[in-house]
Amino acid sequence: MFLLAAACFGAVYALFVGCLLSLGICLSFIVRPLLRGIFWLWGKITRADVRPGYELAGFNWFALPFALFAVLLVLDLGREDVTLYWGLPLLSVGLYLFYSAARDAGVRFRHGERLLASAIAMPEKDVFRRSGEVNKYKNVQLMGIAVVALLPLFLSGAFGYLLEGAMRMAQVRIEAPAIYVKAPYATLLPEALASRHPRVPEGYTAYIGTTVLFKGFGNMTVVAFPDANGTRQLAIPNEQIIVERQSGG
Fold this sequence. Notes:
Elements: H1 2-26, H2 28-46, H3 64-78, H4 84-117, H5 123-131, H6 133-155, H7 159-169, E1 174-175, E2 178-182, E3 204-207, E4 211-214, E5 220-227, E6 230-237, E7 241-244
Antiparallel strand pairs: 1-4, 2-3, 2-7, 4-5, 5-6
Helix pairs in contact: 1-3, 1-4, 1-6, 1-7, 3-4, 4-6
């Protein structure tokens, strides 16, 4: 079950990163002219020939469906945290820039490798060998890929929501179940959530209106429930609780 939950989180996270990156690629028609204007203006101010080190990737129609899904994700997650309305689009632009650098560096790295492997002697080959440009491009490509893969994990602000989605996919998190709890743990849940279920196993008390956060691995089931001061969590040994899924919940 733990491996299933980890696999589900990996799938959810990969889709999340792919959608954000696709949104950044679709925003390239704005980002590219904007950056060209910034470099042009900076060049005028400094009287220097200022150019980006790597070519920015162009618009790709293949990214459009994933970008539309990313917009839906931003709108949905933004209802939980308003900072995600602007944070996620900005993050998608950042991912696009690192993706562009990794993509262009990869093209240059492959070109350099073919050039060095060629049996034909040419000045460009000697320049590549002496400068070490090939290794530089390889490092930039690997760094860009690593940043694209890991940056959303730390800067998206949506880790908790992604984990919650993965738990639902793995059916580790259960919304609005009926739970049956033995004493003394039954006394720790609010009486307001007690259910008058006609068929309650002997020695148990029935409750509704809770959320099972974790169940399926380990020796404990973690239950969250509303209380006067907000939301509380209670870890209950598996032998002290029965969880019944509600088909209509």
